[in-house]
Amino acid sequence: MLLPVQAAHVLALYLAPRPLNAEELHWLTGECARPDDTAWNALERRHVAERLPGDAPRWRAGPSAGAFVRARLFADIWPPEHRACALRSLLRDGAGPRECVEILRDAWTRSRADAELAPLLEVLVAFLMRWCARRGADPAALDGDFLNLLFALQSFPLSSLSLLRKILRLTARAHRMARNSGNERFTAMLLLSRFYLHVFVGNNSSRLADRLESALNTARGFLGPEDDSLLPLFEGQLAYMRGELKKIIACFNRCSDDMAWCYRRFYDTLGVCALFSAGYLHQFHFALGSVEHFQRKAVLAGDELTAAMFRSNSCFLLLRKGDRKRMRAVLRGLEATPLYEEHAIVHSHVTRAHALLFFVEGDARGAHALLDAQTRRLLARGGKPVTFKDPLVLDMLYVFSCHGFPAVPGYDAASLVQSFLQGANRHLKATALRIRALQELEAGAPPREAVALLRQSFEICRSLGDPQSLALTVHALAQACERDGDAGEARLLSGMVREATGRDLRGVSYHEACRTCMEVRPAAFELFGAALPEENVADKSVAERCHAIFSGLAMPDTREEALHLFVRAAMDVFRQERGGLFHPGDGGEPRFAHIVNVSDLELRSLGMRPCLNWLAAAARESRRPVLWHERHGLVLRLAGTGAEVWLLWLDSVYAPQAFSEIPAEDLLQGARLLAAELRAILRLESFRKREITLRHDKLRDIFLREDRNDCLVLREGLQDLLAQVAGAAVTDVPILICGETGVGKEIMARHIHAASGRSGPFIPVHPAGMVENLFESEFFGHERGAFTGAIKQKIGLFEMADQGTLFIDEIGEMSPLVQTKLLRVLQERRFMRVGGTRELHSRFRLIAATNRDLWQEVRERRFRQDLFYRIAAFPLTMPPLRQRRQDILPLANAFIRHFARRYGKTVAPLREDQAGELLAYDWPGNIRELRSLVERAVILHRGGDLPLLFGLSGDPGFVGIRGKESGDADPVLPEGPFRPESLPTLEEAEARYLRRVMRLTGGRVRGEDGAAALLRMKIPTLYAKLRRHGIACGRG
User: Fold this and answer.
1) Gap between the Cα atoms of 109 and 919, Å rounded
2) pLDDT tens digits, residue range 486-501?
3) CA 444, CA 30: separation in Å to the nearest integer?
């Protein structure tokens, strides 16, 4: 007998597509694997594991591993939280993307580093490749779980080329499946998932950007309102590929920071794009705040590689901000870590940042020597420099060429300029145009050609908003105009540069011009004839910044998005890097409604505790509108709605003394303006809630009006049952209503819904007549383009029943597959539309009904036991009409009055002998049969007494049909006493009755003269009964 740790290792080796070493086994199973452990000898003797030769021990599954794993598939040898339990789920029948999602999401939430996830990702990719081979022809396989999984997988493996190739093969197969099945939505969304890879590796192809834009435009037609948060995610990454700085930041601010787990990497990548863009636009509070937030989050998650990458990103921002002392300290720390030598991406970023520091300090030779030496070291180790997107690097390479320095491997200025001129990134293209113009001037080309190139660069720079790049282009244009003989324009342009930089740059080298233009601020745009960017409000007062920033905001649809924009805008007003909106909890602790640049992990960390304690103390301060702490930031007390008090917290790591420079009156004025904006947001949210409530009330009134005659059915014989219902109706407990056909189960369900006070609608579902393959589309809904014929989005029944009641009639008729799918939704109340990627949550109350003995169905394995316990938390059994005869006459009289009004007739009361006939009849069809009998009698009434026609013969003694299935007449059961053994069973009587009715209707089910109308039976229920008894029906 193997130990659990040994069994876990065997399971991991069996699932892994390649041999694993001890560290990878530990990452995959959570169990240590010691190479010298004698336990491995036992595994090898059993032929469930094999050690491969080599210095570093590696193992693979042995020939008996498969049999060993399958024999223990359902054995409880590991606790539920053990990683092996999750891996084992991949081997169960029917396992697919859903199990992979659960495994990967669990690993994600445990904040495991990317390197530790690599073996798990390989296992999942290999499993999905096999799954695709089995389900390739099934359009239902392309569900939201699979798509979300592909998004998540493509965002992980950037440190492993082999794993990346495997994932790309998987996405290629998924793309073929989507194309073959006609799933346009899946195809378009799958193309969007490639954004992450291309943005990360710095792909600058115009053709690729156009393809991705086409995919984005296609996807827009398939995304519903609830997917609005995805659009800015991909629009922002497309804007980054094209170098559209201001649009990148706008898209990032539109994204929700609680993005679904599978899109978190895309959100983080867009955050990196936005922080670099903000750095070019001199919005350093935004840029440095974002990079600090991402870095802290990575540190708390134990992801050293990602943290190092963000620290290297901060170096470029600090360089543009002019904080070279802090930048130098960060560089020294990064160069001292093993990551600098081990990872090409860290090495490339740090080396370029350090070279740029030398360059900006005036040491071009030192910059070249450092970049050249470190790049050659990287190449010698088999690495390769990572591509860059900072235009200043291109300027530095041009200066190297001007000095005649040897070319740095991987940094050929000429090829890079040509690539950027043909690429999609306009920010890099503007710099490349400037460099090409200077190169042509040096080569002796006509100055007019250089002037044309520089004018193109000028127009791009002016539209993008990078002041350093714009000033440098204007300086180069002045030189070109002077050489072209246009001295007047040259003087004008040189004067603009002098006013922007505070220095006359005529006659200085390009290197010196680069250094000087680093000091240019965004206000220089006014000097160059460009509109001042909306984001540039740094030189205004607090009140002016408030008006400028909030006047440009569009109010979003949800409270969360509105609060996100409010906190972001407040951070822009005060130029702070992080902030949050909170109100005091019961114990005085801050309860954040929204917080920016502080992760949940950081909020719970010990390092955040002193700040939270100070915020709690600040919240207890009686009426002080402004509180400031030199380490913890600023708190503004904002007036809320009613007695509710809201407080705004703002903080900066890089400018902790900023508030001390703001006059007290400006702070108070800013607090008053922010309070007014917050009140507007809260009032708008209140109005929206009130509007939703009114809509639900109207729907509820409509349903109540539709059901105003249903109360006729709930008579005196159900008083005990109604007393039980009164207590259960106000809870959320699932209710199972049992009873024969026609006893009024749906009416009882409607009564429970009305008594529950739930604001949502009552949604009745009759799945018995539903095609099994359409279950997902009907219950979950589907997105436009999810499959051939899905021409528009469809809201599913689960979603329609949100905040209301979902009534599933004849639940016992469901197939086993449908039962499984229903159980999963009932457990989680979460689902995705077919072809969708967003997980929806519906807070419906379930009521089910059946005329079967479900417990007997469970014993005979025709109904799932776990589903039975889920739906039967509060069972109710409605007695048949023959067991509550005191209700027969009141119901009959009520139906007579009802149908007399409907058909405009005057009907005399029932005679005493007619009442006796009604009471003596057994009513096999229960209330439905009584209602049909009365309605038929009222329709046939021509004056005098009502013609009561029982059954098909009109005889009150009719309760079934005898005889064989031949063409012989079927005699009815005789009146008076008879022997019990002469009676047919209820099943036999029902089958004979249905065969007779189908002969009378010629096999028709639908229509006015069809069997369903004659029997007053729901069509799905009738179809189910016909299938159960093996009775054929026609096309009607």
Assistant:
1) 66
2) 888 899 889 888 888 8
3) 67
Instruction: Please report, to the nearest 10 degrees, the dihedral formed by the alpha carbons of residues 932, 933, 938, 944 taken in order.
Output: 180
What order do you get walking across the sheet with 874-877 strand by strand?
762-765, 805-808, 845-850, 735-738, 874-877
Tell me how crowded residue 496 is: count the other CB atoms within 10 A of its CB.
18
Task: Indicate the residue type of 273.
Answer: C
- What are the beta bridge partners of residue 794? 782
Amino acid (1-letter code) at residue 212 = L
Instruction: Report residue 536: phi and psi, to 5°.
Output: -85, 95
Nearest to 24 by CA among 69, 58, 61: 58
Tokens standing for 1029?
């008894």
pLDDT at 393: 93
Q: 201 falls in which pLDDT band (50, 70, 90)? A: low
| Token duo for residue 339 | 């990551």
Exposure string of 76-92, with b = 16+ CB inside 10 Å and e = fewer, is: eebeeebbbbbbbebbe
How far is residue 932's CA from residue 948's CA, in Å, rounded to a whole number?
11
Residues 6+ apart with CB under 8 A from 988: 960
- Please work out, in degrees rounded to the nearest 5, the angle formed at the alpha carbon of residue 465 by the alpha carbons of 461 and 467: 80
Distance CA 987, CA 989 (A): 5
> For 368-387, how does the pLDDT look when each residue is reduced to its tens digit (9 = 90+)?
999 999 999 999 988 888 87
Q: Are strands 840-841 and 762-765 parallel, antiparallel or unpaired?
A: unpaired
C-alpha distances in Å from residue 784, one per residue of 175, 779, 970: 17, 16, 53
Q: Is the pLDDT of residue 100 over 70?
A: yes
Select from 613, 579, 584, 611 the least CA-distant residue to 596. 579
CB contact at 8 A, 499 and 433: no
Strands 626-629 and 845-850 turn out to be unpaired
Lowest average pLDDT, out of 165-179, 404-418, 560-574, 877-891, goes to 560-574
Answer yes or no: is pLDDT of 292 > 70: yes
Please, are residues 478 and 437 in contact by the beta-carbon 8 Å criterion? no
CB 193 within 8 A of CB 233: no
- Distance separating alpha carbons of residues 631 and 1013, to the nearest angstrom: 78
- Distance of alpha carbon 59 from alpha carbon 52, whole angstroms: 6
**C-alpha to C-alpha distance for 271 and 287, rounded to whole angstroms:** 9
Q: What is the CA radius of gyration of the chain?
A: 37
pTM for the model = 0.65
Residue 539: φ, ψ to 5°: -90, 5
Q: Hey, which bits of 531-585 come out as E strands?
A: 578-584
